[in-house]
Specification:
By secondary structure, the chain is mostly helical. It has one domain. It has 21 helices and no strands.
Length: 439
């Protein structure tokens, strides 16, 4: 059977099966196995090749950082660090127009620097900031939209699990990917804050309370000592994890382990870690890690099958001969990311899309580190868009309020998804925003 036909048919079949509700990892595994079987004409060869692909994917040392960072994120959430960060941000920004929304973005950005998980951020700040904003008569859609929008910062600001996954797919340094995510993460945070300020002035009805700051209502200013005490655990974790990686003292995997251990000690000191809580953290970490690793194994199988079919090379040649401009090629890629973002999660999008364009990017002389940042930001937009929008689903499930529907969450998140698209365009137009920090 013609390899190119098999390769193209596999891509079409994967999209159809995913739209029909099939689990992404299972879909990739089955289609990859059948594809190799058709290409080689021998089920034994297909079995051996797929087994080898699984073995090669899970034995990589780079992936040891995934469970450690996931574990650190869960422990940080249990330790109440997110609540402390929000309390400080609330003090700093509550007198500004839309101040509680700005505080949520700032707290989410800081929280992202020690968790690397958008889902964890969405869960924590749904409980912390949404009730607070609603208490001060902020609009319900605005309240949940701010949390949904700013939660995506966990996927971009290092340490990010998604950046680790891309680093493996593109064979790039995890440390370089983390460094490259700093400026785009801060840029996206600033864009969200500017958007909130603009909405406070031009569409105050959406923000609520005429977008005025919260009243004093007898609250006292938080002492500097208390602020320092609440920020100390966050600062310590950032110094250990990111400082250790950037100075070369530890690898990404070692930094994750050290961060998880220090977070555990912090949780113990704050008396937030019981045996039952620790058990729940370990189980949740196992579930998330297993799901991610299953996806990675399936994606490795899929990449091997595409390689045998020659589709990446053919696709790269097609892009070259099609004489597409850089803008046209990136438009095609972004549209693909946005399309898949409506049906599957971020890690799946990275594992499926990136291999198709990597060779073309490399041939054109573009930085694969920059391309990784573009990929993650583009895939992140899918966290806020229906029908999948996993961050929106997490917020709705965590809220447990009948007066806020899933539709309200999606509507509230829409302005932030639009801002993300503008930031993505800026990152594509000015690659130095991502890679200048690498020197």
């Amino acid at each position: 059977m013609d390899p190119l036909v098999v390769g193209i048919a596999s891509v079409v079949l994967i999209v159809i099966l995913i739209y029909c509700g099939s689990y992404v990892a299972i879909t990739l595994s089955i289609v990859s196995f059948v594809g190799v079987w058709l290409l080689r004409g021998d089920v034994t060869i297909a079995t051996r090749m797929m087994t080898l692909a699984v073995n090669d994917s899970i034995k990589s040392y780079d992936f040891a950082s995934i469970p450690t960072f996931v574990l650190m994120g869960f422990i940080v959430g249990k330790a109440g660090i997110g609540t402390d960060i929000y309390a400080v941000a609330h003090q700093l920004f509550r007198r500004l127009r839309g101040g509680l929304g700005i505080a949520t973005v700032a707290a989410n950005a800081a929280f992202a620097a020690v968790t690397g998980s958008s889902i964890a951020s969405a869960s924590v700040f749904t409980r912390v900031s949404v009730p607070e904003m609603i208490r001060y008569d902020y609009g319900k859609r605005f309240a949940v939209g701010v949390v949904a929008g700013s939660s995506v910062l966990g996927m971009l600001i290092p340490p990010s699990v998604m950046l680790i996954i891309y680093a493996f797919v593109a064979e790039q340094s995890v440390g370089d990917m983390f460094l490259a995510g700093v400026v785009p993460g801060l840029l996206l945070s600033a864009a969200f804050i500017v958007e909130i300020l603009a909405m406070s002035y031009f569409v105050p009805g959406f923000v609520g309370r005429d977008a005025l700051a919260a009243p004093e209502d007898g609250q006292t200013t938080m002492p500097l000592g208390e602020i320092a005490g609440k920020l100390a655990p966050l600062t310590l974790l950032i110094l250990i994890v990111l400082g250790g990686i950037y100075t070369g003292v530890v690898t990404a995997s070692e930094a994750g382990a050290a961060g998880a251990f220090v977070a555990f000690l912090i949780a113990l000191l704050k008396r937030r870690m019981t045996f039952q809580t620790f058990k729940e953290v370990l189980v949740d970490t196992g579930h998330v890690t297993a799901a991610i690793m299953f996806l990675i194994m399936a994606a490795t199988m899929y990449s091997r099958m595409l390689g045998i079919a020659g589709l990446p090379s053919q696709f790269s040649d097609w892009l070259a001969h099609a004489d597409l401009s850089f803008a046209a090629m990136m438009t095609l890629y972004v549209v693909l990311l946005l399309f898949l973002g409506t049906i599957i999660d971020t890690s799946s999008i990275i594992l499926i899309c990136a291999p198709l364009f990597l060779k073309a990017m490399e041939s054109s002389g573009e930085s694969l580190v920059w391309f990784g940042i573009v990929t993650v930001v583009g895939a992140e937009i899918g966290l806020l868009t229906p029908p999948f929008g996993i961050s929106c689903f997490v917020i709705k499930q965590t809220l447990e309020r009948s007066d806020i529907s899933l539709n309200d969450v999606f509507i509230g998140a829409a302005p932030f998804a639009l801002i993300m698209l503008f930031v993505l365009i800026a990152l594509i137009a000015y690659p130095e925003l991502s890679i200048a920090i690498l020197g």
